[in-house]
Write a sequence for this structure.
């Protein structure tokens, strides 16, 4: 009698903390759930779950495998108390998260379990708050990625345009017989491209408070043509042979600022890491493969040791050549921007032979 009163007081104490008590007689396959246990899953006290199979059916289908493993661990003689978090179906038709703690309290002579007792706690609100926190963290992470992309595009793309304007003016000052109208026309071309870049950046700014990125159908051939005009001084300086097989009118779904950044980074990298042992060649192709639009940038430059650097190829601030004075940010941004567009970036490279960067567009 004293033990019964003590057990009742114990269960009442657990219930005051929002904990439900349950007992399972394995031999008889009967279960008892306290009033608080039933309350947690929104059942009335007279709604009886009289066998373990009925409880088993309340467990979320996605949690059944782990729940079964939880029960088996409870049966293990080496485990005294085991804890598991899973979802159960409530009377309202919704699933609720609970933390269940169980212990075998009686075994036969061979160590097989006879009775199990346990308590479970409603952690629905706690779990929901954790999931909400994860969403907030993910949102801020996406915002940080957008900000990093924006910062890189500003520093890299605008630098190219401004550098070309300065170069045109320097050349004009050096050459006595230079044609001012020709210089002005070249500056106008670069200025128009600069204006387009600023417009694209304005679009990026307008979406900084939203993780959804503006995408539209873009003319890949036209974008590439503009990029080649912008970096013409670098192409001429290294006498690079450009093979452009991308026709005007080749449409892709992408963010304008991101597409410009990707093309500029991949092209300038191909030129920057040209081999001094041969005439630099950079080739652009656009085709359909496995019903997907594919764009490739192929060069015959220094190449990358993928066995050595493949795992960290797109990591931020990573560089792969001894005389490399770059920031190591370009490829990271390219990968980040293509991922943001749900595309795929593949690399095939061999040291001393060159590299091929392959973009597989989402559609």
């Amino acid at each position: 009698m004293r033990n019964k009163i003590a057990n009742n007081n114990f269960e009442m104490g657990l219930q005051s903390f929002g904990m439900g008590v349950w007992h399972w007689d394995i031999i008889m396959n009967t279960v008892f759930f306290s009033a608080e246990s039933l309350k947690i899953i929104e059942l009335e006290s007279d709604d009886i779950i009289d066998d373990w199979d009925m409880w088993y059916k309340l467990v979320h289908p996605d949690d059944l495998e782990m729940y079964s493993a939880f029960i088996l661990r409870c049966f293990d003689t080496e485990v005294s108390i085991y804890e598991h978090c899973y979802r159960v179906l409530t009377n309202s038709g919704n699933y609720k998260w609970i933390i269940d703690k169980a212990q075998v309290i009686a075994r036969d002579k061979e160590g097989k379990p006879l009775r199990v007792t346990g308590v479970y706690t409603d952690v629905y609100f706690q779990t929901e708050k954790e999931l909400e926190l994860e969403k907030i963290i993910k949102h801020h992470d996406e915002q940080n990625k957008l900000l990093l992309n924006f910062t890189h595009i500003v520093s890299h793309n605008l630098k190219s345009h401004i550098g070309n304007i300065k170069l045109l003016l320097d050349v004009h000052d050096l050459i006595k017989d230079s044609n001012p109208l020709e210089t002005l026309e070249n500056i106008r071309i670069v200025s128009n491209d600069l204006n387009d870049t600023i417009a694209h950046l304005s679009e990026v700014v307008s979406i900084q408070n939203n993780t959804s990125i503006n995408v539209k159908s873009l003319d890949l051939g036209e974008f590439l043509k503009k990029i080649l005009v912008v970096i013409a001084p670098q192409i001429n300086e290294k006498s690079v042979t450009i093979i452009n097989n991308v026709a005007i009118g080749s449409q892709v779904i992408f963010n304008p600022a991101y597409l410009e950044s990707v093309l500029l980074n991949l092209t300038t990298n191909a030129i920057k890491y040209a081999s001094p042992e041969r005439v630099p060649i950079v080739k652009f192709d656009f085709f359909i493969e496995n019903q997907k639009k594919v764009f490739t940038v192929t060069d015959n430059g220094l190449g990358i040791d993928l066995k050595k650097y493949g795992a960290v190829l797109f990591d931020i601030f990573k560089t792969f050549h001894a005389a490399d004075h770059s920031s190591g940010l370009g490829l990271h941004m390219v990968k980040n921007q293509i991922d943001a567009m749900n595309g795929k970036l593949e690399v095939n490279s061999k040291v001393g032979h060159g590299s091929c960067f392959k973009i597989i567009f989402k559609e």
Notes: Residues 70 and 84 are 7 Å apart (CA to CA).
